[in-house]
Amino acid sequence: MTITAPMEGELWKIAVSTMGTEPLQIWVAETLKEFVSTRAVSIFGKLHSQWVGTEALSAIRKGQELAGMTPWYFPEDPTIVHMLNGQRAFLLRRIVQALAPQVLPQELLEWRLQLDIAL
Question: CA-CA-CA-CA torsion for 111, 114, 118, 119, nearest 10 degrees?
Fold first, then answer.
């Protein structure tokens, strides 16, 4: 399934409203610690506050810091979080599985089912 930036943003907004900011920070930190890169070369992407909202962006940034995965070589920008694209995809898969199916948008329920049964 292809996740668009607006859909990714909606998912993070649901996560922060469902879990709360501080629990989401801890969840992001713990989940990032489980991430294992399978690529020799990784590309950085950006999460913008216009997509994910300021609360979710703050939680993701703090989670990165707690996990020790803040990229130090990017300029500090309060509206952007830089993250390896592999980490973003990993977090998206895991957050879809962590949230209750009742709070997920209809278009993500099928993806959740695929992830749950490991398709």
Answer: -110
CA 63, CA 54: separation in Å to the nearest integer?
A: 14
- Read off the pTM: 0.87
Q: Would you call 4 helix, strand, or coil by DSSP?
A: coil
Cα distance between residue 28 and residue 51, in whole Å: 17
- Rounded-to-integer distance, Cα 80 and Cα 55, Å: 12
Q: Give φ, ψ of 84 to 5 degrees.
A: -60, 140
**Per-residue DSSP letters for 66-119?**
HHT---TTS---TTEEEEEHHHHHHHHHHHHHHS-GGGS-HHHHHHHHHHHTT-
Tell me the pLDDT tens digit for each residue of 57-71.
999 999 999 998 877
Rg (CA), the chain: 14
In the three-class reduction of DSSP (H, G, I as helix; E, B as strand; rest coil), residue 39 is classed as coil
